[in-house]
Design brief:
Layout (H helix, E strand, L loop, with lengths): L20 H8 L5 E3 L2 E3 L6 E6 L4 E7 L3 H16 L1 H4 L3 H17 L1 H12 L3 H21 L7 E2 L5 E9 L2 E5 L5 H14 L3 E5 L6 H9 L10 E3 L4 H10 L5 E5 L2 H10 L6 E5 L5 E4 L5 H13 L11 E5 L3 H14 L18 H16 L3 E4 L3 E3 L3 E3 L2 E4 L6 H4 L6 E7 L2 H8 L7 E5 L3 H10 L4 E4 L18 E2 L4 H7 L1 E9 L1
Parallel strand pairs: 7-8, 7-10, 8-9, 10-11, 12-13, 12-19, 13-18, 17-18, 19-20
Antiparallel strand pairs: 1-2, 3-4, 5-6, 6-22, 11-21, 14-17, 15-16
Helix pairs in contact: 1-5, 2-9, 4-6, 5-6, 5-8, 6-7, 11-12
Bound molecules: 1,4-dihydronicotinamide adenine dinucleotide and magnesium ion.
1,4-dihydronicotinamide adenine dinucleotide (NAI) binds next to helix 9, helix 10 and helix 13.
Length: 504
């Protein structure tokens, strides 16, 4: 019997004393505008779109419906700022100070920003707080880089000097998804600015509030106008216009693999640089010698955290046959104990799905699993109204061809897969078009390293999961992406190299 009836907590009323009033006030205030060239503007069409509260399904705000004309306006503002001495000629120390100031502003406003994100995307508040706070580390890390972006000198004869300069690309277009606007914004804005670029960011239409409020708060950092621009709007319209714009030098995109392919195609017009962070179907491999007390909760967190709307979610759980029965029972039990509820309810473990459309997608996948003959071990129920809730769902008796095993679901749904030995596990874990992340649970150190090498994934976790740090690169193998974010790789991805030959 499931104890986590999805939607059971939808009637929850938050305690106003415990919720950031600033966040509630911001959400309630009038229609949100576009931030272009340091000014707040309505969309040129005058249109707005509705912003839904996924916990209730109700419209809670409106945001300007930016379109191609607004994107063009923003790209021009960003180009102007890129060339203006107030940004182009400042010392690296000043660029560093801007980023440190941004981090300080975020730190002072973590509660408000975290609450806006929690409400807008339906993420439970403690998790939203943690992700919001992590933005400060991201800005501080890249603040340090601003003074350490180096060129080289090269050997030459006695009357020449050959050296290289690592220069910014120009205008960077950032297109982000709804599943975590805080870190998606930070990951894209911080390295771009550290390298001297300017940014036009398009939030996801399902969750525009955090980036817009962030830009408002960041006005206190006094960046020159046009260095950071935010244009809310639809993917197929504003997003497409940004991806195609000849005045944009790079697109940094996070989202679905299908849209990522379109971004790459759109980039050919002016051969803009592209970084893509796309979907996943990450394997989580549990060997018989794993410390099950740590493994089980982590495995369940791996596919339920953020209601499964996480690109690195460990949705294919491979379990060795010797421990399969024990692990399957423990995972089912732990999944049932997850409390699905309002993101502001302190007792909730996970919140709702972002939208009716996404809830329907998740429900369709659950149905397809059943139709293709998989056995539902626990969960499976989705409830619409009020709010978009779905129970943590675990399938068994799956085959490697089923859609629930091959496709990214983006809901709290996992497939348990029995394996017999290391080779079998690695082969099947790699039998996917994706390659974003993977996890391995074992106490055998040589097995851990051998399997980590053999897995085709941009990040491999051993005896842990979801540990991402701005210090190390992050990105996908195969169809999970192109290029890397974070770490020094992010500096390379936001710059280009000029060689200068001086004959004297
Ligand atoms: P999406 O890929 O459509 O949206 C991501 C961003 O791209 C949004 O800002 C959207 O407005 C923009 N976009 C959409 N179409 C565009 C276009 N033609 N040109 C330029 N920009 C465009 O993702 P969506 O529809 O929100 O979610 C669908 C599925 O995608 C999810 O179920 C999930 O499987 C996957 N997804 C994966 C993410 C990840 O982090 N790996 C994040 C979001 C979605
Ligand atoms: Mg979409």
């Amino acid at each position: 019997m499931s104890t986590n009836k999805a939607g059971a907590e939808a009637a929850f009323t938050p305690d106003p004393a415990k919720i950031s009033q600033a966040a509630l006030d911001y959400i309630k205030a009038g229609p949100k505008k576009l931030y272009i060239g340091g000014a707040w503007k309505a969309a040129q069409s005058g249109e707005t779109f509705e912003v839904f509260d996924p916990a209730t399904g109700e419209v809670m705000a409106h945001a300007a419906l930016g379109k191609a004309a607004d994107i063009d306006d923003a790209v021009k503002a960003a180009r102007k700022a890129f060339q203006d001495p107030s940004w182009a000629r400042i010392s690296p120390h000043q660029r560093s100070r801007y980023l440190l100031t941004i981090a300080d502003i975020i730190e002072r406003n973590v509660e408000e920003l975290a609450t806006i994100q929690a409400i807008d995307i339906g993420m439970v508040l403690p998790q939203s707080r943690q992700l919001t706070a992590s933005m400060c580390d991201v800005f501080r890390y890249f603040a340090g880089f601003a003074t350490k972006i180096l060129g080289s000198t090269y050997p030459s004869d006695g009357s020449a000097l050959t050296y290289s300069l690592r220069e910014p690309l120009g205008v960077v277009g950032a297109i982000i998804p709804w599943n975590s606007p805080t870190f998606a914004s930070a990951w894209k804005i911080a390295p771009a600015l550290a390298c001297g670029n300017t940014v036009v960011l398009k939030p996801a239409e399902q969750a525009p509030l955090l980036p817009l409020r962030l830009a408002e708060l960041l006005e206190a950092a006094d960046l020159p106008p046009g260095v950071l621009n935010i244009v809310s709007g639809l993917g197929a319209d504003a997003g497409d216009a940004l991806a195609k714009h000849p005045g944009v030098n790079k697109i940094n995109f996070t989202g679905s693999t299908g849209v990522g392919k379109g971004i790459l195609a759109a980039s050919t017009g002016n051969l803009k640089k592209v970084t893509l962070e796309l979907g996943g179907k990450s394997p989580n491999i549990i060997f018989p010698d794993a410390d099950l007390e740590k493994t089980i909760p982590a495995a369940v967190m791996g596919f339920t955290s953020g209601a499964g709307q996480v690109c690195v979610a460990g949705t294919r759980v491979f379990v060795h046959e010797d421990v399969y029965d024990e692990v399957a029972a423990a995972i089912a039990k732990a999944a049932q104990a997850i409390k699905v509820g309002n993101p502001l309810d302190p007792t909730a473990d996970i919140g709702p799905i972002i939208s009716k459309k996404q809830l329907d997608r998740v429900s369709d996948y659950i149905k397809s699993g059943q139709e293709e003959g998989a056995a539902l071990r626990t969960g499976g129920e989705a409830h619409e109204g009020p709010g978009y809730y779905v129970e943590p769902t675990v399938f068994e008796n799956v085959t490697d061809e089923m859609r629930i095993v091959r496709e990214e679901i983006f809901g709290p749904v996992a497939a348990l897969i029995r394996f017999k030995d290391e080779n079998d596990a690695v082969f099947r874990a790699n039998d996917t078009e994706f390659g974003l992340a993977a996890a391995v649970w074992t106490k055998d150190i040589s097995r851990a390293h051998t399997v980590a090498r053999a897995l085709e994934a941009g990040t491999v976790w051993v005896n842990t999961i979801f540990e991402l740090d701005v210090i190390a690169p992050y990105g996908g193998y195969k169809m999970s992406g192109i290029g890397r974010e974070l770490g020094a790789e992010s500096i390379e991805a936001n710059t280009q190299v000029k060689t200068v030959v001086v004959r004297f």
